Queue: 2 jobs
Job 1
Amino acid sequence: MMRRLFWRIFAAFWLATVVVLLAFLWIATSNFETEKIPGLGITRLQALMDDSLSRTSRELRHDGREAAETWLRSASDFGPISLYVFDASGREMLDRASSPEVSAAARHVIAEAKTLPDDGSLLPTHDDGRLRARAIRVKDDGIYGAVAQLEGTFVSRLLSRRPMTFWSNVATGMIVSALFSLLLAWYVSAPLQKIRASTRRFAEGDLDARVGALRFGRSAEMTALASEFDEMASRIKTLIESHRRLVRDVSHELRSPLARMRVALELARDGDDVQLQASLDRIESESARLEAMLSQALELSRLETQRRAAQDTVPLDQLLEDVITNADYEGAPRGRKVVLAECERQMITGSRDALYSAFENVIRNALAYTQDGTTVTVRLARDPRTSNGALITVRDHGPGVPAEELARIFEPFYRTDSARTRSSGGTGLGLAIARTAVERHGGHICAKNAEGGGLEVSIKLPTAFGANMPNA
């Protein structure tokens, strides 16, 4: 396939250069025959005919008849111009047959020359475009008529050049153009072949296949294509590995509740009414946990694979107020409150649902671990480090997280310890969903242990992000 592409590219380049070369020859020949020389009023071809007649006159007058015959024989091979010399009796010097127009032109200039005195004055000439004639007076040998005639059509004159000069130059040009076309074809096809080989390896399952740096054919377009392929391959590898990890983690996480449900079923079969009710409650609790886990896993997968976030105009202050209202209601039975301590109205372009999910998961996580009777504080302000960014902080009063594990709490199914997540019924997916949603909007999320205890999660979002959202 790539070999055929190489030869197709070569043929295209070479044919293009050959066509350009032939077109140049055509135009140059046409201009040579039709373009008039400034100040003279004749074309270059007519000037060449005049030069041939002048050369014939010099040979005949100064070197004699034999030199003139030699010159005529050599000049007869030139192609587009034929030279004839007639004596006063009308006989052609080389006894060649000629057209009636040529004979008539020779007789005409000879007859006019006979009427003129031999005093060195200009001898008569004749010109009708394709034929030019001149009288030649030779001392002690009388008057001759030299005729230069343009032979054939334009195409035949274009093709009737000397094979060892004109067409050898053309052949040299074609060979050079062929070599140049081979180089260009290789320059174009070599990087394409490398990209195709990487694509084939990637399609066969080698997720680490990359084009890398191009050593040959490093045009801006090819380099961009190779770079985009590598970025695409990296993104696909990340998605595939993420899905594999998600499936693996979900499978692992499903084992515990399913095992507990099996135990509860066994106890329900063998126990009394009290044990039966407790087992049914346990089954209901584990079913709800499974449903929440699968729902969050699907939401995480959707956020990771969607091509582009929605382009809604989202007021962040109103969105946070909605999330806080619902969370505050849920924390009321245990004396846990959620308040919006600072709020600066800001707008962002993005997906309202994804942002709502991100804020909800962070605030619910804080609400789950803050101590009874304490308040989860939420703040919305401008990011002091940028002119068009929003900073959302959520601070709880819970046990916090070990410093070495702060970055990992945003990984799917990661738990710092059994007390922090399992006792609360969490699935370990909430913060992973929040991180994915925030990053889909070009933002950043991080956590740190707050002074005085508790965990503080910071979310930075560009408010002028808009159409620059990253593709999947």
Job 2
Amino acid sequence: MKYTIEKTEKYTLVQLHEDKLNSTIAPELKSELVKLNAEGVKSVILDMSEVKYADSSGLSSILVGNRLSENEGGIFIMAAVSDHVLKLVKISHLDTVLNLLPTVEEAIDAVFMNELEKNLRSEEPEE
């Protein structure tokens, strides 16, 4: 699997450099997401701009990343999703589960907003 990882204090950006996210690549992506989670990464942005095709195993690996991030109190965002992949996500009704944004920049903003909201909620007095 060809990819690059850029780690920052608040999020990790995973850029896939593949045309297809299918059963040959999905296990590698899944293990990379599990490894990032084990390293303490809470929020992940998955840049899908180069991915033109995904199948159910690809979506499955994305769901694993989503669950891991949520369990850690972070956020998992798919950015720059192609029309074909978006169609599959919608057919699978995963658009209600996954965070999808048009650009990496918007995804970065969403990570910071998520962090702010989490901090505000933790400061609210108990009733």
